[in-house]
Structure formats: structure tokens, C-alpha cells
Amino acid sequence: MRRGETVSYDPDQSSSAYLICMASGALAPPVVLTIAGFDPSSGAGATADLQVFATHGLFGTACLSALTVQSTVGVCRVSVTDPDLLREMLDQLTQDLPASGVKVGMLGGAAIVQVVADYITALRSQRKIPVVVDPVLRSSSGTALLEPNAVRLLVAQLLPHATCITPNREELATLLESSRLATTDLVDAARALLDRTGAGSVIVTGGEEADAADLVLERDREPCWLSGEHIATRSTHGTGCAFSSALLSRLVLGEDLLAAAQHAKRFVEGGLRDAPGLGSGRGPLKLSKAPYQMREALQ
Q1: Are 30 and 100 in contact (CB under 8 A)?
Q2: Residue 263's closest CA among 214, 202, 219, 199?
Q3: How far apart are CA 286 and CA 168, in angstroms?
Q4: CATH 3.40.1190.20 fits 30-272, yes or no
């Protein structure tokens, strides 16, 4: 095999071996795309996603749905990208750097939701690549990031094409236009979301809960709970972004959903433990490692 040669990933090949090859330059990395907002503090949004992709040995591209004025303290202002500009960005990337997987995060408005839904619909009609949608409805500091009519459009037009949706419990309730859900209601609520949207799977993240357990529900399969560790830290900015982009990375590397979810959860827990303690508010996780250092997390 020549250095820099692009090859298709073999799901039977171990992810560890694949990352070692990419770290050595023997393989050209798969291209993955994030469609998300820009967070100047880099704790969340597209810049955080790109760090996660690089850590997993993938080449990340990004289309920005919005610019934000924010820091670890909170969000002060949001300026949504012009929909035509976003459409042009997506078209250019499709022609030159076609993605092997797409992560969708903050969208910011109904017009952006429609552009992304049209893009994903066309993309999935040609290639069945994994699409992970993290329905970012509020910032970590509580600022609303998507108005109700845009949420309904998200449910109707974009989520039906998702390989996996990754809401937390509050976001799941909002998607279903329900009140906050108790733990005993989560399985029925997750099934209701799959029934309503036709999506392939949903992972309800619970890192902010006392038991830190995540619910994994795939269509036509029994639910599975992933136990976790609740880590006491103020460095929680961007945990949802980190989880969903790590999940996409594992799926692109050939893992099945459950294995990808387990590894993504461990990745986020490690990022919380090793957080650098930056900022005076909700600080960022540690997201960056050399690709070859991911071997231990994949074993």
C-alpha cells in the first residue's frame, strides 16, 4: 500500500489497527462533516467537533450554521448564516470532499433546518452514510437556540433521515412537545420519537443525571442502558457535541451503534476527568489527543 493512498474501511478490521495506520500516514483518513454553529471559546460547536474528529484520525470539514458571541460564561448573541450561503458551502464540499459521515448540531432557525434537511435527503438517497443529529435546542447556559416552529420542522423534515438522534432528556421532551420526562417514561418516549420520525435509532444521554446512564434504542430492538459515572466538574461545556461527534467517528470507523455509543460515552467521561479547567464559567472538556493515543480507548 502506498503512503497516502485512500482505501475503503473494512468493518472487520479493528479500529485500533486502522488508527495506527492513519497515524503513520499509511492511509488517507475518511472525510467527515459537521454542520453546526461557531463557538469562539471552542468548547462546543463546529470547532469542538473538529477536535474530536482529529482525535479519531478522521479529516473533519465544517459548514457553519450560525456565528455566536459566547464564552464559557454563556451565549450573548446568535447570528444565523444566510441559507443560500450555507447551501453553497454544502454543494462545494459535496463536489470536492464528499463526506463518509455527517454530524448535525446547532442549526439556529427554520430556514437553516430546511437547507440541511434538503441536503441530507439528497445525500442519503445516493449513499447510506451515517448521519448523527444532536438536536441542540438550548445552550449549556440555558439560552434558547431554536424556536418552536423550527423544532417542529426539524422533527418532520430532518430527523427522519438520521441514523441516530442524540438528545438529552430535556431535548427529548421538547422534540415530543411534552413536559420533562421521568426515567420511567424514557423508553416509551424514545420509541415515540422513532415512531414519529422514522429515524434509525435514538440515544438519550444522561450524563447530567445522578446515575449518568444513557438509553440506547434501535428500531425493532430491545432498549439498552449504558451505565456511566457522574463526574463532578464545572467543565461541562459541549458534552453533547463531544458525544455526538465521537459517536459519528466510531460509526464511520465501522463500529455498530452499541459499540460506538459505549466508546463515545467513555470518550466524554475521559474528557470530563481531564478537563483543563479553563474559563470562569462552564469550561471545555479535553478533546484533543494524537490519533494513535486512541488505541487504549478502542480496545
Answers
A1: yes
A2: 214
A3: 21
A4: yes
Asked whether the whole model's pTM tops 0.85, one would answer yes
> What's 186-210 look like in SS3?
HHHHHHHHHHHHCCCEEEEECCCCC
DSSP class of residue 79 equals E
C-alpha cell at 293: 493515543
Answer for the pair 206, 265: CB distance below 8 angstroms, yes or no.
Answer: no
User: pLDDT of the chain along its 299 residues, tens only?
Assistant: 333 343 333 333 445 555 555 555 557 899 999 999 999 999 999 999 999 999 999 999 999 999 999 999 989 999 999 999 999 999 999 999 999 999 999 999 999 999 999 999 999 999 999 999 999 998 766 778 899 999 999 999 999 999 999 999 999 999 999 877 777 789 999 999 999 999 999 999 987 776 779 999 999 899 999 988 888 899 888 899 999 999 999 999 999 999 999 999 999 999 999 888 998 898 889 998 755 455 444 44
The ranges assigned to domains in the chain are: 30-272
List the beta bridge partners of residue 78.
Answer: 68
Which residue has cell 475503503?
Answer: 8
Task: Round to whole Å and give the CA distance between 59 and 97.
Answer: 10
Whether the Cβ atoms of residue 62 and residue 46 lie closer than 8 Å to each other: yes
